[in-house]
Amino acid sequence: MAEVLVVVEATRELGVKKVTLELLTLARQLGSPSAVVLGGPGAADRLGAQLGEYGAEKIYAAEHEDIDGYLVAPKATVLADLVRRVQPAAVLLASSQEGKEIAGRLAVKLDNGLLTDVSELAPDGTATQVVFAGSTIVTSRVTRGLPLVTVRSNSVTPAPAPATPTVERLDVVLGEADKLARVLDRVAEQKGSRPELTEASVVVSGGRGVGSADNFKLVEELADLLGGAVGASRAAVDSGFYPHQYQVGQTGKTVSPQLYIALGISGAIQHRAGMQTSKTIVAVNKDPEAPIFELADFGVVGDLFKVVPQAVEEIRKRR
Amino acid sequence: MNIVVLVKQVPDSSMDRSLRSDDNTVDRGSASNVINEMDEYAIEEALRVKEAHGGEVTVLTMGPSQATESIRKALQLGADKAVHVLDDALAGSCAVATSRVLAAALGQLNPDLVLCGAESTDGRVQVMPHMLAERLGIAALTGARKLTVDGSTLTVERQTEEGYEVVTASTPAIVSVWDTINQVRLASFKGIMAAKKKPVQTLSLADLGVPAEEVGTAGATSEVVSHRRRPPRSVGQRITDDGTGGVRLVEFLAAEKFV
Ligand SMILES: Cc1cc2nc3c(=O)[nH]c(=O)nc-3n(C[C@H](O)[C@H](O)[C@H](O)COP(=O)(O)OP(=O)(O)OC[C@H]3O[C@@H](n4cnc5c(N)ncnc54)[C@H](O)[C@@H]3O)c2cc1C
Ligand SMILES: Cc1cc2nc3c(=O)[nH]c(=O)nc-3n(C[C@H](O)[C@H](O)[C@H](O)COP(=O)(O)OP(=O)(O)OC[C@H]3O[C@@H](n4cnc5c(N)ncnc54)[C@H](O)[C@@H]3O)c2cc1C
């Protein structure tokens, strides 16, 4: 069976990201999954067990301090060399900022098409993309080169399928053009132990109706009880209630969790763009005309400062 | 400093946008056409760099003839001149082809600093700066929420999922920006008047030396096979809080196995 390359995303604290496990699960339907670890020294040893658990038959390990020390370009160079050599059936990356950036460079290096924000990929290479604020479903395919796609988080349910991967170390040969954008520092601002917004299976978001930064504690409390991430509308971000990296929508993050709870959010089209494909949507809003109710599987017309504390108390009671 | 800002015209994201039923390309008549929102922040940042360090700001757009409206707006805000890559053969270009054309134009403009949006609100492909950097052999500092210029050294705070990274490069380089980087200005009356006299150069594919068969629908590296409207979500249950709204919400969550 032909190899399918999966570019691994990981964090130092949490190991392999959930989206990578999703990609491995998807890759198993397309061929034989090979995980590509691009990182600093020791990266592959740290991640190997988790990658094997989700079905990686092979691990390509490119470890070099320059891969961490410079932005994106070294990863694309190593990956391009690998793709030319093994001629995989497909290359899968996460549809994160960096995943798209690596894919973009790879597309130029290989003169290959690319598809971003893909939610489904069939064995014949036909992809599904949801575009224009979730209003339109497109089927598309790469017509030049191999299927090079970035896949949206939460598009596939990750399922373990233990394998014992062989590990192949890659030579990291970089040129001057790969070392132009130097990383001086990496600063984590992630709050507490909440899951990452784009990966979370539950997202609780607050809007202008939450009223203040302090009141966002209520949003956080509900999110924590449900094991979810916290999101915010642009109005909430612009008002300084919550940091920008948590913005959901057209100009923020696109999320597709199992459960999305919108508190004091009207449901403007640009907000819907980022959450419309969530499996189940719940809304609390005091305005019965708020467009968010058009999307909600369960809506409560009411004051969030009454409804949410009562819900929080009820969840605690049931534990 | 010779600064080029990339500006893309897109269908307004607050309106109902669609693809054409005949060739699956963007229906430019379905919603009004505006400057891609992120690009307004790139224009603003370019003007700020120019005001602080001197130089000239050139707007570069690839798009159909109505994109002149977006060019004019950028000139009204304070850009000095514009280059419009306009050619019927460009219709339906994929990101790979777009980067080829923009790179050819940038090659002629020879900028020290290229500014662009972090992503467009229509394609949201988020690849253009790295594609261009790859083609031109220059640095790409992407996803900036802050840019500092010190002589020929650029330093950027790059927004990431976890927080931010501090990244640095020497000019020439391309920097893409998020809407967190600045507050955009409005065009002044003086700016609107001055824009009328600012030069707009139109370039064809032949002017750029890019073969027509390698761009547009003919040269696309990917194709849209079909598209359809997403069916509206089925109407859910809605209650009005009578003092038990929170409890009933949890009952719903429990029935759906979330608690
Ligand atoms: C190009 C562009 C890009 C954009 N990108 C984004 C984006 O990425 N994300 C995004 O979210 N927006 C985006 N917007 C902005 C968007 O158009 C809306 O302005 C924004 O989503 C509104 O946020 P909101 O729903 O929190 O605020 P509002 O629209 O002001 O709604 C607040 C809601 O709270 C309700 N409320 C108030 N008090 C209470 C209470 N006590 N209890 C219950 N309900 C209450 C009100 O009834 C109201 O419905 C973008 C706009 C543009 C032009
Ligand atoms: C719904 C939709 C989905 C698409 N999906 C794909 C896909 O999966 N693969 C693919 O190859 N193409 C795709 N395209 C085509 C792609 O959007 C165009 O080729 C586009 O010109 C380049 O991509 P972008 O605007 O999304 O780039 P981004 O990388 O998101 O744009 C970043 C910045 O680059 C600059 N820029 C981009 N285009 C231009 C331009 N024409 N003129 C001046 N500056 C510009 C702007 O400053 C912009 O803010 C899609 C288009 C649409 C409408």
Describe this structure in words.
The complex is a heterodimer of chains A (319) and B (259). By secondary structure, chain A is α/β, with parallel strands linked by helices. Chain A has nine helices and 17 strands. In chain A, the strands form three sheets. In chain A, strands 9-8-7-10-6-1-4-5-11 form a nine-stranded mixed β-sheet, with helices on both faces. A five-stranded parallel β-sheet of chain A has the order 14-13-15-16-17. A two-stranded antiparallel ribbon of chain A has the order 2-3. In chain A, helix 4 (73-86) packs across helix 5 (97-110). Chain B contains seven helices and 13 strands. In chain B, strands 9-8-7-10-6-1-4-5-11 form a nine-stranded mixed β-sheet, sandwiched between helices. Chain B has a two-stranded antiparallel sheet with strand order 2-3. In chain B, strand 4 (56-62), helix 2 and strand 5 (81-85) form a beta-alpha-beta unit. Chain B is globular. At the A-B interface, helix 5, strand 7, strand 9, strand 12 and strand 16 of A face helix 3, helix 4, strand 7, strand 8 and strand 9 of B. Strand 17 of chain A pairs parallel with strand 13 (237-240) of chain B. One flavin-adenine dinucleotide sits between chains A (207-209, 233-236, 247-252, 264-266, 268, 270-271, 274, 284-287, 290, 303-305) and B (13-14, 37, 121). One flavin-adenine dinucleotide sits between chains B (6-8, 26, 36, 38-39, 42, 60-63, 93-96, 98, 116-117, 119-120, 122-128, 222) and A (114-116, 131).
